[in-house]
Amino acid sequence: MSAALTDPSSASHPAHPPKGEPLAVDFSDILAAAARIAPQARVTPVMRSRSLDALAGCELHFKCENLQRIGAFKFRGASNAVLSLSDDEAARGVVTQSSGNHGAAIALACRLRGIAATVVVPHDAPRIKLAAIADFGARIVHCDPGQAARNAVTAQVLADTGGVLVHPFNDPRVIAGQGTAALELLQQAPGLDTVMAPVSGGGLLSGTAIAAHGIDASIRVLGAEPEGARDAHDSLASGTRVTGRPVDTISDGLRAELGTLTFPILRAHVDDILLVDDAETVAAMRLVWERLKVVIEPSCAVPLAAVLRYRERFAGRRVGIILSGGNVDLDALPRLLALATPAQDTP
Is residue 321 within a helix (H) or strand (E), and if so which, with residue range? Predict the structure, then answer.
């Protein structure tokens, strides 16, 4: 595994662990998910920018999941999970927890199947994401921020409703669905040697890694994470899943911690997790707005910020980046853009 250059004081990540217990998802699950969700999910475009290539010193291919239904990749995993339910399970309704995008995705997937959905949401979730969940017809139950609070309220809702849990990332059906984005990317842009995605609970990055290595085992898979929510980086560096830490980042979609299913997948398939600060994230977000002319949210910009911060690691490579979502709170833009690092938002 490549050395961890994200923190000068950190040791290199351990080598990929030897095969042991089977992982929760394999490449065949992603192929099955792609067929299952094809009638509902959009095939999103891959965009290029010569000016961003010049800034990064490599060839960048952006998979625009910000143009997916509900404005995020999350619809892929939610749709696969909801469509996988038996009729008896579906009749009980679905319960999930989410900071926003997964909740909206579950709400829409359940509406399309004609079943009930309840979403446990932290009370500090962005207003635009709360509105989307409500607009798609789900019941919202608020909770305090933090994983422990989410888990406790979700458990109570499950007990009260008898619903079926579809976890936002620690669910094989969700992981397989998320992997279909990378599957499409590598079909649309064959020959990529590096694939990147942001990491929070690890569902997207897990699916991305399995899809990439199912197509070509030599593809380098990297995650990107905020400095203020670096549990995935530190979990891979130590070989032990880090939990229970407070987080401090503007990237509201990247505040969860790795799950028991996603951690072993990342250990087996991911080469490194690169860290960036919030100022670099906002500068990268602004660059995408300016150069690609598409709207993305801060969480989505973290991989590009990592490419720009660690240019030497990407020199001359062909890099695919999953643009994970575009549900930015427009009312917060003045405050967000004020954080941008000036050196990164100019040619």
Answer: strand 318-323
Domains and CATH numbers, the chain: 27-72+171-344 (3.40.50.1100), 74-165 (3.40.50.1100)
At 17-71, the pLDDT tens digits run 445 679 999 999 999 999 999 999 999 999 999 999 999 999 999 999 999 999 9
Answer whether 336's CB lies under 8 Å from 298's CB. Answer: yes
**Model's pTM, two decimal places?**
0.90
The answer to whether the beta carbons of residues 108 and 75 sit under 8 Å apart is: yes
Using CB atoms within 10 A of its CB, is residue 150 exposed (0-12), middle (13-18) or buried (19+)?
buried
Catalytic residues: 74, 99
Q: Using CA atoms, how far apart are residues 72 and 61, in angstroms rounded to an integer?
A: 17
Residue 225 backbone phi and psi in degrees, to 5: -150, 145
Decide: 157 and 97 in contact? Cβ < 8 Å. no
Burial of 140 (0-12, 13-18, 19+ CB in 10 A): middle
Q: How many residues does the chain have?
A: 347
229 vs 12, 51, 115, 204, 252, CA distance in Å?
A: 19, 30, 34, 16, 10
Q: How confident is the model over 317-326, as pLDDT tens digits?
A: 999 999 999 9
